[in-house]
Amino acid sequence: MNNCIVCGHKISQPLFNPGPQPLAALNLPKTKEDAIGAIKHPMNFHACSICGHVWNLDFEYAQVPYASDSNLMYNKGTLWQEHMQVTIDKLAENYLMWIKQPIIDIGCGDGLFFTQLLKTLPAKCIGFEPGIEGDKITDFECVRDYFIPERDIKKYRPSMLVCRHVLEHLENPRDFVAEIAYWCGQYDVAPVFLAEVPCFDKALETGRISDFLYEHASNFTLNSLYTLFSSSGFQLLEIARLYDEEVTVGYFQPHNVALKQHSTQTQKFNASVEASFKQVATTLDSLAKKYTPVVLWGGTGKSAAFLNMFGLDAERFPTVVDSDPNKVGKYVPGTGQMIQSVDSLRNKIASPTIIITTPWRANDIYREIQLKVLRYRQILVLKDGCLNEYAPD
Question: How much is the pTM?
Fold first, then answer.
């Protein structure tokens, strides 16, 4: 995990390396001997120089027993209860937007947030919790499993996703968030995503080291949480530091229009390429069988890619010319034709079919043909997936 796990950039600065440390939030030994002999895990935190995210380069998700142990973080203080109620009241302001469809809490723990929400609002609440804390939930449906976007977005079509104090535990939070955005686009649902994480800005400002836990692969700043979602297919609705600026709460929504466009564009491209290969192959076979001279104009770069991808081999199509005299006498990579001078076409007895292999340069090549008064039978260029007769602009 040398690259930033939020923005992907590799430019970072070493921030804090206390050496191997025991689990602090998911381990409570029953004996002194077990406590002293607790397994220690490497902590090597870097700060991204681009988005400011702080993460543990040596974190391994498999080393943390989320499914078999209970999260020992405890906060049932008055101010924390008030903080959760402020969040719930915020949801209540727009509850008509999401009340008709289920709301899902990803990694709901012991279900305290939804339990408190249900005291304020009627809602169809579904929690996902693979750990043993899910055993305590009685107020709403709890799925004893990890949330799987492809499966669960299709099944539940949620109007809201809640993910509180989970993202900081993930090895690849960007992949997880992007996957949710993608499947929302595929299934045409646009839930509000409520994300809450510990805010690391104050720890950075004050030099506080007790915030570093092995269980927290990530330490989000306000900017890095925004970056996580904005670079993963979501648009920002609102973001703020709350609870004395110790937590960051953000509201996001997937860019379904853009996500659908990307998907549609990809499918359209794949279909057009498949059709193009068939059309071009038919045209080339026809030209080869007619035994009329064919000249391929362009021998390197995109031209070489054209020759290789469409199978214009040296045996069937031996003549390649190029406008650049520096390329003359060299050979087309992959197909092997020797690149000839454009002026060599003057010596051709029969007028050839000229195939312009770089459509983006077609106008310039056509002008060069006219200026040099070169004879030709026809000029073909790839357009709309076919080799069509060139038509000057």
Answer: 0.76
